[in-house]
Specification:
Elements: E1 13-16, H1 19-29, H2 34-37, H3 39-44, H4 54-69, E2 74-80, E3 91-104, E4 107-117, E5 123-132
Antiparallel strand pairs: 1-3, 2-5, 3-4, 4-5
Protein name: MaoC-like domain-containing protein
Domain MaoC-like: 23-78
InterPro entries: HotDog_dom_sf, MaoC-like_dom
Length: 134
């Protein structure tokens, strides 16, 4: 890992989403909810198409952080608020930027703004994360 400073941007983590991704995720998490699998069920619930699972977006944030940490350190906390839907065919990108460096229980830490966004830059899940750097 290179030197970390406030303003360090994490390399983005992107995935094109759709039924294949969602089906695999649903199988692992026993989350076969109709609005995630069927366009008609999603439209009946007021969505334009089937929508991705919120927990899948959380997994993109965790992948972003784990990839950046590269086996060093650990994810201590992640929090955020869902602000937009992940619809079928959308590319979702997880991004992050270091906003503070500090220490917690004797361990060096970084606080980050993290988020997922669609291909237009609309933030779907903005949040914050704290990671240990050791």
């Amino acid at each position: 890992m290179t030197e970390i400073a406030v303003g360090t941007e994490l390399p983005p983590f992107s995935r094109a989403t759709g039924f294949g991704n969602w089906n695999r995720f649903a199988a692992v998490n026993d989350e076969f909810v109709p609005i995630h699998m069927d366009d008609e069920a999603a439209r009946a619930a007021g969505h334009p198409t089937a929508i991705g699972m919120g927990t899948l977006q959380w997994s993109y944030l965790h992948n972003l952080l784990r990839d950046w940490l590269g086996g060093r350190g650990a994810i201590l906390r992640v929090e955020g608020q869902f602000r937009g839907r992940n619809t079928r065919g959308m590319t979702v990108t997880a991004r992050g930027i270091v906003t503070a460096l500090g220490e917690e229980n004797g361990t060096r830490t970084a606080t980050l703004d993290v988020w997922t966004e669609d291909e237009h830059g609309t933030r779907l899940l903005p949040g914050t994360a704290v990671v240990s750097l050791e």
